[in-house]
Design goal:
By secondary structure, the protein is α+β, with helices and mostly antiparallel strands. The protein is built from 11 helices and 16 strands. A hairpin with a 5-residue loop joins strand 1 and strand 2.
Amino acid sequence: MDSHSRTLGHAAVERCRVLTGCTDEEGMVRRACLGPAMKRAHMLVAGWMEAAGLDVRVDPVGNLIGRVGDPKGRPLAIGSHLDTVRDAGPFDGILGVMLGIAVVEHFRSRGQALPVPIEVLGFTGEEAARFPLPYLGSLAMVGGLPEDALRLCDPQGTTLEQAIADFGGDPGRLFEPAWSEANRPLAYLELHIEQGPLLESRGLPLGVVSGLVGQRWFRLSFEGRAGHAGTTPMELRRDAAPAAAELVLVAESMARSTPGLLATTGELRSSPGAINVIAGRVTVSLDVRHGDGAALQSAADALLAEARSIAARRGLDVRVEALAESAPSPCDPGLRALLAEAVEAAGVTPTELVSGAGHDARAMARLTPSCMLFLRSPGGLSHHPEEDVDADDVALALDAAVRFVDKLAHAPR
């Protein structure tokens, strides 16, 4: 790792920390898709892009795009997202955008011409924290939005169409293609914190991602009957709360006993929601993930069947709402090999791991060969204000990314 990588890598970390000041909620980091804090973040990031020599624009859905190099050439796209969950840390997504800028700065600081054009992409709406569609910004860029996307509503009832207009965009251009066939990216690289403990447990700063798990999201509502907690005998109750609790435990048990399966019930909402009232309705979310599509389908089907069985056994109704579905997305084998070579040349033993989280690389893979490089997450923390990185790991990631750009430029196409 040379001094350029160390200096620019450490600067990328500092920029991530500066962006924590762009928040929609005092006292924590919350930067929503197409919100006021995103507008402020765009001003800062666009300034860093322009200083690095990139031409900057914002597309209709609020993605920030910087480009440098031959305007007629097919670029390498490097990016991640700039939006956050509520009460976020500084690095999830954001670090990948800062490292994209740093790659351009690295070549310029050494007086070298870029071996390929580069587009740095700062996506919005990856988190589905405002509108109920993950990868909103990257799906828009690859032409993957549903036809009714403009009618999506945030929790306050604002439509995506209105949010785009409020942000200064043109919702009528939402479905315009971002690239023609002639100038679409030749590849996509995403650098991202791991958001888990595997690299740290192996003593490794970097890992090459082999692929992203598939995901199925559901919302289940168990419907019983509310009643007085003191006057309704246990045998006469139609209590929705134990049914939801039973499903939570079944999901945990199935995931623990099935290799590669992840099942999470992260939201539970009880109604009427009083200490002395039997729950007449309990809504529970279900997030099911697996790297194999058939195993994912089987697990999701089994859990939904179990929910219906629980409801029938307890004299309840259950309503199932499918929220989102993503198939497993393997990273491009050729790019994985180049990235592993670049990691090894940077002085790190290359290792592969599966991403249990979703990323914009999933959407970009619809358009162009895609790959990801993970950085070690201290303590395995993410989506948490104490989320962190080691600045020297970031410098190593930058070193590997620069080497990857060179290798990609000289690879046969």
